[in-house]
Amino acid sequence: GIPNSLRATVWMRLGGLTEELIEDKYRHLYDESRLKECPHEQVIIWDLNRTFPGNEYFREGKDGQEKLYRVCKSYAGADQEVGYCQGLSFIVAVLLLHLEEEKAFALFSVVMKEYQFRDMFKKGFQMLQLKFYILERIIEDQMPDLWEHFQKHELNTHMYASQWFLTLFSAKFPLGLVYRIVDMFLTEGPDTLYKVAVSLLKLSRNDLISQDFEEMLKYFRVALPKRFMNKKQGQKLLSTAASVKIKPGKVAVWEAQFHQIQDEKRSLQDPVRRAEHELKLSRENNHRLEQENDMLVLHLTQNQVNMRHQLDELEKRNLELKRDLAKMTSSYEEMVDSNSVLSSEIERTKNLYHSSLIEGDDERARHKLTIKEYHNMCRALEERHEKEKQELNQEVIEIKAQVGGKAIDIPSEQRLRELEMELAKTKLCLVEANCKAQEYEHKCTTLLEKLKHYETGVLNHLKAKLNR
Fold first, then answer.
1. Spatial CB neighbours of 429, under 8 Å, sequence gap ≥ 6
2. Closest CA to 201 of 134, 120, 138
C-alpha cells in the first residue's frame, strides 16, 4: 500500500486535486455551504457519536468531531440533490485522519461526483440496487455453490452489502485495512466495491456455506470484521481483491438485464398492462406445459419400448442361466460319482500300500536274520579254520623236526586247502545274500515311491475335478 506519510499527497494526486484548484473552487464552496441552513443537520449530529467512537480524534468535544460536522454539513449544502445520508460520515472521517479540513471536503466531493459515489444515493437508491444486482450475478458466476446457499436460505445481497457499499467498507473494518481499500478505490475506481466484496465472500466461503440464515447474518455483523483485524488476513484480502476479474462486457449485460427488470416492474403497475402481462405469462405457461406433456408422452413411450427390450433380454438370460444350471448340476453329479470311485481307489491303494509296507518289513527282518546267521557261521568257520591251521602248522613243524627237515607229503596240508575252499564258498554265499538284500531294499523303495506318486496323482485329479 501507500506509505502512511505519503498517503495525503498521493490521495490528492489520485483525485486530481491541486492547491490552486482547491483555492479556486472548493475553499469558497466549502465556506459558502457551511453557512447555509441544512435540513440534514440533526441527522449529521446523530451520526457524529456513532462515527469511530473508539478513535480518540473523534471523541465528543474533540477537534476531529467538529471538523467532521463541518465537512458533512458543507457537502450536504453543496449537493442538495443528495444532501446527507447516514454512513457518509465514516468516509469523511477516514479522509480527515489524513487531510486538512478543506482538502478533505474537496477530496470527498471528488469521490462523490467523479467516482460516481453519489449516484448510489439518488432516485430511491436505484444505482445501489443495480450494484447489488451486479454483485449477485458475479457471485453466481464465480461462486455458484455460495450463491445457491444464499438462495436456499433467502439471504439477499442488501442484507450484508449495504453497509459495505455505502461506507466504502469503513464502518466495521480496521482503519489500516480501510486506508488501503481507499488507496485501491482512488486508483482503480468504483469496481473496487465489487472486488473487495467478492474477496470477502471468497475468503469466508467455507464458513458461510455451513451456516443457516441467522448464523450468516451474525457472521457478517461480528465474526467477519474481527477476522480482518489480523494484518496477514488483511493483506490476503487485498491480494485476492487485486486478482478478481470484473469483465466490462458482462457488467454491461447485467446492467441491461437490471434495467429491463425495472421496466417490467413499472409496466406492471398499469392494470391493463398487468393483465396483458399475466395473459402472456399464462399463454407461455400453457405452451410450456403442452411441450412438457408431449415430452412426457414421448419419454413414456420410449421407456415402455426400452422396458420391453430389457424384459426380452432378461428372459433370454434366464433361459441361458437355466441351461448353465442344468449343465452344472450334471457335472456336479458326475463329480460326486467320480469322487466316490476315487475315494474307493484311494482307500484300496492305501490298504495295498500298508500291506506292502508290512510284508517288506517282515522280509527285511528275515533277510537281516539270515545275514546275521551267515555272519556268525563265517566267524565260526574262520575261528575253526584258524585253529586247525595253527594245529596243522605245529604238526608240520614237529614232523619236520623228527625227519630232519625232509620234504614229505603231509595229508594235513590237503585238509587245510579244503578248509580254505569251504571258507571262500561261505564268504561268497554271504556276499550273494548281501546283494540280494540290497536289491530287495531297492525294490521296496521304488515301490513306495510309485505308490506315493500314484496317490498324489489321484488326489490332484480329484481336486481339479472338484474345482471345475
1. 374
2. 138
**Dihedral in degrees, nearest 10, Cα atoms 460, 464, 466, 468:** 180
The larger pLDDT score, comparing residue 412 to residue 375, is at 375
Extract the C-alpha cell encoding 191.
469496481
d(Cα 22, Cα 11) in Å, to the nearest integer? Answer: 14
Q: Are 378 and 426 in contact (CB under 8 A)?
A: yes
What rounded mean pLDDT belongs to the chain?
Answer: 86
Give me the helix-helix angle, 126-142 and 158-166, nearest 10°: 120
- Please calculate the CA angle 7-224-183 and round it to the nearest 5 degrees: 15
Which one-letter DSSP state was computed for residue 228?
T
Q: Determine phi and psi for 148, rounding to 5 degrees.
A: -60, -40
Closest CA to 88 of 63, 105, 101, 66: 105
Q: Is the pLDDT of residue 432 over 80?
A: no
Give the per-residue pLDDT at 271. 64
**CA distance to 152, 254, 261, 415, per residue, from 137 (Å):** 16, 7, 14, 137
CA 196 remoteness from chain centre: 30
* pLDDT score, position 288: 75
In this prediction, residues 250-255 reach a mean pLDDT of: 94
Over the stretch 147-202, which tens digit does the pLDDT of each residue have? 999 999 999 999 999 999 999 999 999 999 999 999 999 999 999 999 999 999 99
C-alpha cell at 58: 473523534
Rounded-to-integer distance, Cα 88 and Cα 104, Å: 13
| Sequence letter at residue 290 | E
Question: pLDDT at position 422, please?
Answer: 75
Beta carbons within 8 Å of 392's beta carbon, 6+ residues apart: 412, 413, 415, 416
Give dist(CA 54, CA 48) in Å, integer. 12
DSSP letter assigned to residue 154: T
> For residue 84, which phi and psi values (nearest 5 degrees)?
-130, 135
CA distance 144 to 451: 79
- Output the pLDDT for position 270: 62
